[in-house]
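FORM 12-B: Structure-to-Sequence Request
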């Protein structure tokens, strides 16, 4: 006998509160542009803010609005699927309809190396948030927005891989057996937000695309960190500009 309410049944039910009611409770009347770059990484913020004239707001995340360009940059909401869910629900309630997620990821394949860029074409939901929104365990991004992001990267002559990711809740519980399992299934990366991001975008009928820069390697069935290396930051900056061009239609 299970004590948990069945998640597959839950995905068809209406929530009691919801982000709009939460914002009304907070008396938050902020209206955001319809497009956003969303990034859990604080390490990208200083660079991103140097690329425009942003107004800063805070509502469950640090929201930087570039009114002239018509998009916002969102960060400072924490790491992992639950943090992504709360920030994303609030952003959608505030008017955002298109999102590009930028983040770091670990490599599961020998051809995907530190500082490489990976355009995400799907995510395995090995986390606890997605099942509250949709019943599928493999979630896909917006095809049209992903195509636009790929085009923007090609126009900038950026090299990148395309493949799916494994989204996990427990970054310190990645095991050699799991890495080997996902290697055989051609999963390229591991990270902590993408499947929840795609699930919520699908359930709320908004568009989401995602791309990562590789910060650590696990394909040898051991952990090899490369955080802080110059090439990683360079490709994060290049990816930021590709996301900006994607959202602005350039």
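FORM 12-B RESPONSE
SEQUENCE OUT:
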């Amino acid at each position: 006998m299970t004590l948990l309410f069945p998640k597959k049944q839950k995905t068809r039910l209406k929530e009691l509160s919801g982000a709009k009611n939460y914002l009304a409770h907070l008396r938050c009347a902020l209206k955001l542009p319809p497009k956003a770059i969303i990034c859990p990484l604080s390490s990208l913020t200083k660079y991103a803010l140097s690329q425009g004239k942003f107004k800063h707001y805070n509502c469950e995340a640090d929201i930087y609005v570039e009114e002239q360009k018509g998009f916002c940059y969102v960060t400072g909401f924490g790491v992992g699927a639950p943090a992504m869910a709360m920030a994303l629900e609030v952003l959608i309630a505030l008017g955002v309809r298109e999102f590009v997620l930028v983040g770091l990821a670990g490599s599961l394949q020998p051809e995907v190396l530190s500082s490489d860029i990976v355009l995400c074409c799907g995510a395995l939901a090995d986390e606890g948030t997605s099942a509250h929104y949709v019943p599928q365990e493999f979630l896909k991004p917006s095809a049209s927005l992903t195509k636009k992001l790929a085009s923007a990267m090609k126009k900038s002559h950026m090299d990148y891989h395309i493949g799916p990711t494994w989204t996990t809740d427990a970054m310190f519980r990645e095991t050699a057996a799991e890495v080997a399992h996902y290697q055989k299934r051609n999963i390229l990366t591991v990270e902590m937000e993408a499947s929840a991001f795609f699930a919520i975008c699908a359930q709320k009928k908004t568009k989401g695309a995602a791309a990562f820069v590789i910060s650590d390697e696990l394909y040898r069935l051991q952990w090899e960190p490369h955080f802080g290396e110059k090439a990683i930051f360079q490709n994060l900056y290049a990816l930021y500009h590709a996301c900006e061009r994607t959202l602005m239609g350039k």
